Amino acid sequence: MSTYGKYTAQTANDSVQVQEIKPDSTTVSLPTEQNRLNYKSLIIPAAFIGYGVASLTVKDLKQLNFSTRDEINEHRPDHIRLDNYTQFAPAVLVYGLNAVGVEGKHNFKERSIIYGTSMLITSAITIPLKHIVKEERPDQSNTLSFPSGHTAIAFASAQFMYREYKDVNFWLGISGYSLAVFTGIYRMLNDKHWVGDVVAGAGFGILSTELAYWLYPKINTMLGGKNKKSATMVMPYYQNKSIGIGWVKTF
């Protein structure tokens, strides 16, 4: 009997290895990277978050917030709202690239669950923090400045693109960060956030996506991943200045 697919073998070092089985002359390509939480990948987001938190109280960092805002206002840049859209652009690119045949690490269902989870984690972190910290925005419109939600979503989306494409094409994988940086800069140019807000937002966004990849196997099982006849789609949406998550499940 000819069998093909994949199986896992537990070694003495407790590491799971994915094996390829080749039926006849057909080769089955299987992913080898596990969805594990790599602590080294948390160093950068932790540093960003630490800087952002420190900027709330450390005198020199607070002064940098004000001096940057003053420098921006001195040049009076036009306030454009592209940052409302570029925050999602890296994720849109992932789906677009897959649609034209440039496949990433996961299929449609898997990446939708991962990205949806990332957006939920990002919102669960940033929204309560805004109401707890109550930092006034540079334009004094409200006290929901810290951290930058737009920047958090942008870097969560960029990290999502990186994780999907880093093994396919490294330069393609990191290209989403340019859009994330653009979003963060324009949050400051639009007088909506301080430097510390943006840096912290970047950290929370990257952290959210890393947690989403780590949680994916458990969430996939919870959503019925063992039922091959079921299909689940989790997608973020932005409408009328509101951000949310849509969940559709078919049986």
TrEMBL record:
Membrane spanning stretches: 168-186, 198-216
InterPro entries: PAP2/HPO, PAP2/HPO_sf
Occurrences of domain Phosphatidic acid phosphatase type 2/haloperoxidase (ranges): 112-213
Record-linked SUPFAM superfamilies: Acid phosphatase/Vanadium-dependent haloperoxidase
Domain of life: Bacteria
Keywords linked to the UniProt accession: Membrane, Transmembrane, Transmembrane helix
PANTHER family per the UniProt record, alphabetical: AT30094P, SPHINGOSINE-1-PHOSPHATE PHOSPHOHYDROLASE
Protein name: PA-phosphatase
